[in-house]
Amino acid sequence: MSKNNSERVLTPTFDKKGNPEWKSTLSRPDDSYAVCHMIPDRIIPVIFVPGVMGSNLKGIGNAQGVRWRLDSEHTMLSWLGRGAVKRKQYLTPETMTVDNEGERPGGTAQSDEELKRRGWGEVGAMSYGGFLVWLENALNDFADANGGLRDLLTNKTLGSMKSDEALLKAQVALSYRYRFPVHAFGYNWLDSNDASAEQLKLRINSVIARYRQQKKRCEKVILVTHSMGGLVARHCSEVLGMSDKILGIVHGVMPAIGAAAVYRRFKSGTEGGWLAAKVLGEDAAEMTAVLSSAPGPLQLLPTPEYGNDWLKIDDGSTVVSLPRNNDPYNEIYTVRGRWWSMCEDYLITPRAPRTPVREQREIDADWASFSDIINDKVKKFHQKIKGNYHPNTYAFFGSDSQFKAYGTVVWRTTFKSIRRPPLPRQEKDVFNAKPHFYGELGETRTALYSGKSPGQILPNEMFRISEPDEEGDGTVPYRSGIAPKEHPGIKSMLRVSVGHEPAYKDSAMAREFTLRSIVQIVQAIKGTSLDYE
User: How many CB atoms lie within 10 A of CB 128?
Assistant: First the structure.
């Protein structure tokens, strides 16, 4: 055999079950010889947990045939013509379940069958497809270890908070001794996040069991989350006791202590662009019909840790600020019958045209159900995850004046439309005023004042809701994004300039941070049974 033989490095392919294989053609002995870079049989699955509205859902029961499918903007257009009544009928925790038939993007070495098995069809390809492909390729480039994306992060810093240590060559090398199949976990985002956390627990166990059944060594997973998915992961890890099976977590744009934008959506619909508002809910009627019975989105409301005074009423002479006693549940969320009340009781179950007026007892029953969700599911969930983070956590958050979010929500009086000077403060009670007009669903509300003497009529007053005021990502304000910083479990945080929904697809820095964080998380494998001697 000639001593001048050259190597032919074989790029691995994968069968329908995701197992590696190498294909080569025979050649003359003096031409070349094939080299296979072996794929590790020690597996650390990476499971992506999407944000609110980011999982594909399908209707069950009377809602059979209905889809919340985020394959593309086109697949969401069916929601343009569905008003409050249809949304109330279809978008409830009881009428929807996870749909695993969503689009599964190409561009990886894995078969479509394997990607479906990994849950890629459960999450919105429109928001996450490109990122999942990128992450799968970046974590499984065994034929391109030198010059691959992980290798390019060696000795590079990103400007992270708390810790901005550059990756060492040895750290990257260790990561190549494990295989990181990327999975996705869709969940019913209308349901409570603790229920979704229970499902995530089952998924983690089933993923680990799958690789063990294939005679692979697998004990722990890594979670990568987006937005509300971070709350699901925290509850799963720290409340349900799954921390030992989770090697680490990477959070992206997580509303750690809530987002005041949820209040705004109850009153005025979805903020942002025209299409997003039309699809997600463009006014108080469409949003209240869904949010009032959906514990998951309600759990995105600001927690007591968000602080006092984030809801303000400015009547031109004085400012009323709420909450005053760090109790947003009783001071804001379940306050009924005021013009500024977050949830307007008559909108909880919208009335279709030409149907009888709903009786007061029915509206009272709706309100009782809503109040129960706030007190039994929202408040208790907030208490359970308060200050709880996996001990090996990395996070990035959006903060830029280009993407302002609601840090505070302000109602300001407007005199231009009512053409009169403001009422003297002593003659009105802006806090207790009732709504003057039922049917105001947008950015303005009219307060109806009662006089001090019986039958006294005072002029009403119109208020307009403010624009976003705080640096953030367009949804989560700075104060909520950075909230975990001082927790000892947070190893590193990165501040990026990015919008909320496209955080993983629009920011190369966010993706690099995620990849670097996974390599850093892997270092915790040392001393475990998956460590190499």
Answer: 24
CA distances from 90 to 1, 87, 124, 287 (A): 72, 5, 19, 13
Q: Would you call 423 helix, strand, or coil by DSSP? A: coil
Pairwise CA distance, residues 80 & 279, whole Å = 5
Look at strands 400-405 and 470-472 and give their pairing.
Answer: antiparallel
What span, in angstroms and rounded, lies between the C-alpha atoms of 372 and 370? 5
Cα gap 318→334, rounded to integer Å: 24
Q: What distance in Å separates the CA atoms of residue 383 and residue 235, rounded to the nearest whole number?
A: 11
Give all strands (DSSP E) within 54-102, no chain letters: 57-59, 67-68, 96-98
Stretch (H or E) spanning 252 = strand 246-252
Give this prediction's pTM: 0.92
Let me know the angle formed at the C-alpha of 144 by 510 and 218, rounded to the nearest 5 degrees.
75
- 445's enclosing H/E stretch is strand 444-448
Tell me the pLDDT tens digit for each residue of 87-138. Answer: 999 999 999 999 999 999 999 999 999 999 999 999 999 999 999 999 999 9
- Angle separating helix axes 125-139 and 508-522, nearest 10 degrees: 50
Q: Is 281 exposed, middle or buried (0-12, 13-18, 19+ CB in 10 A)?
A: buried
Cis peptide before 323 (omega within 30 of 0): yes
Give me the amino acid identity at 500: H
- Decide: 456 and 471 in contact? Cβ < 8 Å: no
Task: Give the integer Cα–Cα distance in Å for 20 and 123.
Answer: 25
CB 90 within 8 A of CB 66: yes
**pLDDT for the residue 28:** 59
Which segments of 373-477 does DSSP mark as H helices, in order? 379-385
409-413 and 461-465 as β-strands: parallel, antiparallel, unpaired?
antiparallel
Collapsed DSSP state (helix, strand, coil) of residue 412: strand
